[in-house]
Amino acid sequence: MNILVINAGSSSLKYQLLNPENGELLAKGLCERIGIDGKFTYKPQVEGKKVLDAVDVAMPTHSEAIQAVMNALIDAENGVVGSMKEIDAVGHRVVHGGEAFNKSVLITEEVMKALEECIPLAPLHNPANLTGINACTAVMGKDVPQVAVFDTAFHQTMPAKAYMYALPYEYYENDKVRRYGFHGTSHKYVAGRAAAMLGKNIEDVKLISCHLGNGSSVTAVDGGKSVDTSMGFTPLAGLPMGTRSGDLDAGILEFLMNKYGMNIKEMVNILNKKSGVQGVSGVSSDFRDLENAFKEGNDRAGLAVDMFNYGVKKLIGAYAAAMGGVDAIIFTAGVGENSASQRLAIASDLEFMGVKMDAEANNVRGKEVVISAADSKVKVLLIPTNEELMIAMDTAAIVKA
Ligand code: AMP
């Protein structure tokens, strides 16, 4: 079975063709500058097939982008499948499913309407996701099943005490203002892998999943269900991130807006694009740059990383308390998979709650491995995330059902 996984943005579109049954990746790539000058990248994973790297392809809309993907995948010389018939279904990453979707769904006209109703919740992302779906229908026809896989769906199991904000209740009832959480596909994937690594049923384990990358969130997963997560109504909440502030006292907004005569758009732009470790360090949003800058004596770069690590550590404590214990802590995404020093800083000094790191075992990157000491009551796991595979697995399960 071959599933095409699509992650559509407003002017770009990432794709992968993979087999969810054995995890085999056939090809991946990227359409960039859609609606501008069109750059197309194609990376077949089959020996002897030619890579295309940011070549010029006219892509006035997402439909031409999907057509370019199809042409490359079925190309007689460098394609990886014989024809479009060998693509069984398409799985789309959709950012926001609101309260309407608590799991992945087969896309129907009714679902498209419900997706449109979710646009106000993610005005920047959901319209692009919808465009990607329409483009696939235009190019592949109505007979190829398409599935929507939501970043928010996994978190729909949170209890009200975790997802409600202490605002007047009508803002929840009338306007759906609540915690939704994001990175759900990643948290779900690594939670499943963690249970497999522990040799236990997912129903029997309490996990804390730390997805630490340019965007970061931590999720408490009890018995396979998300019971709390650090991102909120939007992905701006929780940890300080590359350029996002994370949680802060809302009173600061009024103070700064009054003092500098800023409107709310300017303020929110600062919170999303100019804050986080970039804002504190003044150096970079990239954790590798911060590590290097700190080694060269830049204390603010060190402070930014310390604030981030401290934020993750506090969430681990909070979620262990929320679940009444924890069996394993998972590190994933760019920082979680690659930065041994940050993993160590985060998970050190937690012996009181049964977490004992193995500094040597931790000195790895990018593979599934236990990085806690043999006698650590709580296991610490490094698990590379694979959102595309999770999307393909969900898509296959729905199409087969
Ligand atoms: P992601 O959003 O998951 O792609 O993660 C991107 C982040 O991972 C960036 O801040 C990178 O600097 C960080 N990252 C990647 N490799 C490393 C590394 N070796 N050490 C520290 N951070 C890393």
CATH class annotation of the largest domain: Alpha Beta
Helical element count?
A: 14
Strand content: 15-25%
**Large-scale geometry:** globular
* CATH architectural arrangement of the largest domain: 2-Layer Sandwich
Largest sheet: 8 strands, mixed
Helicity, as a percent range = 25-40%
At the fold tier of CATH, the topology name of the largest domain is Nucleotidyltransferase, domain 5
Overall number of structural domains: 2
Give the strand line-up of the largest sheet.
5-4-3-2-1-6-8-7
Bound heterogens, unique:
adenosine monophosphate
What is the CATH homologous superfamily assignment of the largest domain? Answer: ATPase, nucleotide binding domain
Descriptive notes:
This protein is 37% helix and 19% strand. The chain is α/β, with parallel strands linked by helices and 401 residues long. The longest helix has 25 residues, at 299-323. The protein is globular. The two termini are 14 Å apart. Residues 213-214, 242, 286-288, 333-335, 338-339 line the site of adenosine monophosphate (AMP).
Short description:
The chain is an alpha/beta fold and 401 residues long. 37% of the residues lie in helices and 19% in strands.
Keywords:
eight-stranded mixed beta sheet; six-stranded mixed beta sheet; Nucleotidyltransferase, domain 5; 401 residues; 37% helix; alpha/beta; binds adenosine monophosphate
How do the strands and helices of this protein lay out in sequence?
Elements: E1 3-8, E2 13-19, E3 24-32, E4 39-44, E5 52-56, H1 62-73, E6 89-94, E7 105-106, H2 109-117, H3 126-140, E8 146-150, H4 160-163, H5 170-175, H6 184-198, E9 206-212, E10 216-222, E11 225-229, H7 251-260, H8 264-273, H9 276-281, H10 287-295, H11 299-323, E12 328-332, H12 333-338, H13 340-347, E13 369-370, E14 379-382, H14 387-400
Parallel strand pairs: 1-6, 6-8, 9-12, 12-14
Antiparallel strand pairs: 1-2, 2-3, 3-4, 4-5, 7-8, 9-10, 10-11, 13-14
Adenosine monophosphate is lined by residues 213-214, 242, 286-288, 333-335, 338-339.
